[in-house]
């Protein structure tokens, strides 16, 4: 920890290791304070840690370059920056330090205690308590562990905000010197979002996960009814052994296919809205906006289900049940004197549906890889659209073909509608086929050109502003 983590050639203003840089103050001697002090000292800063009772604090917990003193002394020794590493409930106990803190920059590192939308952020409250100091919000997204882990392990984005530009720049530079990537998120009014950031739990995933789960429940229930419960009640067939694997593998692909269709459906609905309105400048209804923004999550969930389905499918033949079924079939064939049970049509069917499934899954994997920010950011807009939209539709088409080849012509036999319930693959195909037909429909030249015009900013007459120059007059239709 005594060895500086940053190379000496960093050109920003700041301390040079070993030369004795500016003193950074920290109020509080808890976990965060200890890790921050270690990081600051390792980066060549001098540190003054202010405690209510410095005598009670274990000296060994702090690095050699950090000085343990009273809160007032730390406030006085700090050249400019002071981290407030105490819980916000105790901010008022620092009011006695107002004089010493005058003109200093207070860095509020606190997190929100809950997501229950308080009126005021902790940082705004600190600024109200110390009007003579300037308050900067930041560093709260780092855990004490991440601070201690070193520049490589802990290198991550640190949102920082303040109403005082100079103070904010000083904290941004400090964060950079400590090996983090500071992000200026604006004024102190952004502090509440910054304070809540460590508490939110996958904010954009809730609805897509719920929807996928409900689809799973529906298809699992349907399969259970059709393949297990009704045959048991009707003929005493005991198919309950299918519950853990076969039924799951009948359910997962149906969920994957429908979810994949739900990724591409909102783009079509958006197109219909734009065509009907004759403009792209009118906002979509909230539900469509939300749906468009959930496509990445829905797509990745579809990929997850399809991937699991592929693994389950490969295990189908490993099951004891498959071995016994094969043996029994072979025995019956021998008894019946059948020498060759090769059915050319069914051989083609299985090869075709497996090949389409593998290709579909491969393309979905490509989409998943490009959804990683580090990969997606390396693509330009056209490349990203080609992969996500072009190849995405290719994956949808291949998945539909996989299911159609799997279904073959069995859907035309009455035996497929046991208990008047259609097979699950037929249900799963409805939405994807609708999306594909809709996409083909939108590719009709009359619709495609009008949509392209609208998306380039053209508006039909009823939406144009009064002084709009008619495109016809300029020859630009
Ligand atoms: C495995 C997997 C990973 C995926 N990863 C990502 C990902 O990382 N990022 C991602 O965005 N999608 C991701 N998706 C979802 C999907 O592939 C893309 O959203 C794809 O671009 C949708 O193509 P599209 O042709 O339906 O619509 P688009 O071509 O995107 O949109 C159609 C039209 O709708 C309008 N429109 C679209 N969005 C909005 C909006 N928010 N507000 C107003 N108008 C809008 C535009 O006019 C646009 O031209 C992923 C899907 C899968 C299966
Ligand atoms: N720990 C983390 O990983 C982490 C991560 C991000 C943000 N934070 C934020 O950092 C702040 C401190 O967290 P922490 O984990 O370091 O907490 P902690 O271990 O409980 O330390 C808090 C320190 O505050 C000091 N303090 C000052 N006045 C106090 C008072 N009136 N009553 C009680 N204590 C008082 C105490 O030091 P003295 O007894 O020496 O005065 C105490 O050690 C919090 O706002 C937290 O949200 C922590
Ligand atoms: C490596 C890739 C894949 C393999 C090996 C594979 C394999 C299989 C197998 C063996 C079946 C028949 C299951 C049974 O007998 O009950 C099947 C059915 C099915 N697959 Fe796939 N598949 C793959 C990818 C996909 C993908 C990407 C999708 C869609 C997104 C998909 C959707 C379906 C559907 C809807 C069914 C019909 C389910 C039913 O009604 O029982 N598959 N697949």
From TrEMBL:
Entry's Gene Ontology cellular component terms: endosome membrane; plasma membrane
Compartment(s) of residence: Endosome membrane
Keywords noted in UniProt: Copper, Endosome, FAD, Flavoprotein, Ion transport, Iron, Iron transport, Membrane, Metal-binding, Oxidoreductase, Transmembrane, Transmembrane helix, Transport
Family to which this protein belongs: Belongs to the STEAP family.
Keyword check for DNA repair: no
Cofactors required: FAD; heme b
Domain Ferric oxidoreductase, residue spans: 255-396
This protein's name: STEAP3 metalloreductase
GO biological process, one term: copper ion import
Domain of life: Eukaryota
SUPFAM superfamilies: NAD(P)-binding Rossmann-fold domains
């Amino acid at each position: 920890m005594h060895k500086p983590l940053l190379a000496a050639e960093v050109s920003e203003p700041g301390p040079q290791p070993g030369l004795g840089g500016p003193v950074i103050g920290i109020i509080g001697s808890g976990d965060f304070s200890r890790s921050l002090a270690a990081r600051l000292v390792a980066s060549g800063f001098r540190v003054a840690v202010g405690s209510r009772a410095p005598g009670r604090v274990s000296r060994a917990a702090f690095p050699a370059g950090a000085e343990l003193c009273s809160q007032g002394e730390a406030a006085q020794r700090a050249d400019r920056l002071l981290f407030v590493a105490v819980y916000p409930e105790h901010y008022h106990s620092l009011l006695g330090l107002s004089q010493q803190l005058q003109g200093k920059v207070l860095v509020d590192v606190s997190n929100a205690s809950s997501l229950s939308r308080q009126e005021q952020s902790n940082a705004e409250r600190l600024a109200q308590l110390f009007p003579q100091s300037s308050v900067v919000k930041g560093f709260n997204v780092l855990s004490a562990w991440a601070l201690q882990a070193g520049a490589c392990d802990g290198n991550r984005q640190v949102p920082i905000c303040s109403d005082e530009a100079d103070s904010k720049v000083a904290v941004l530079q400090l964060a950079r010197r400590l090996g983090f990537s500071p992000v200026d998120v604006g004024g102190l009014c952004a502090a509440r979002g910054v304070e809540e950031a460590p508490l939110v739990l996958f904010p954009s995933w809730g609805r897509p996960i719920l929807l996928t789960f409900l689809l799973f429940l529906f298809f699992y229930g349907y399969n259970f009814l059709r393949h297990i419960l009704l045959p048991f009640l009707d003929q005493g067939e005991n198919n309950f052994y299918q519950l853990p694997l076969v039924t799951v593998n009948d359910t997962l692909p149906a969920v994957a296919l429908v979810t994949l269709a739900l990724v591409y459906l909102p783009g079509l609905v958006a197109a219909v809205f734009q065509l009907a309105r004759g403009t792209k400048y009118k906002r979509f209804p909230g539900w469509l906006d939300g749906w468009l923004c959930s496509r990445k999550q829905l797509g990745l969930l579809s990929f997850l289900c399809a991937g699991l389905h592929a693994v389950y499918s490969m295990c189908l033949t490993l099951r004891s049940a498959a071995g016994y079924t094969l043996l029994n079939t072979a025995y019956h064939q021998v008894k019946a004197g059948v020498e060759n049970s090769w059915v050319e049509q069914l051989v083609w069917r299985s090869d075709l549906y497996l090949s389409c499934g593998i290709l579909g899954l491969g393309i979905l994997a490509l989409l998943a890889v490009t959804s990683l920010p580090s990969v997606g950011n390396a693509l330009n807009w056209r490349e990203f659209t080609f992969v996500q939209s072009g190849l995405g539709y290719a994956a949808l088409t291949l998945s539909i073909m996989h299911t159609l080849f799997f279904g073959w012509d069995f859907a035309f036999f009455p035996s497929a509608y046991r208990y008047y319930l259609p097979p699950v693959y037929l249900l799963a195909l409805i939405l994807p086929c609708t999306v594909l037909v809709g996409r083909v429909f939108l590719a009709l030249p009359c619709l495609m050109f009008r949509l392209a015009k609208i998306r380039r900013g053209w508006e039909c007459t009823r939406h144009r502003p009064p002084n709009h120059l008619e495109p016809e007059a300029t020859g630009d239709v």
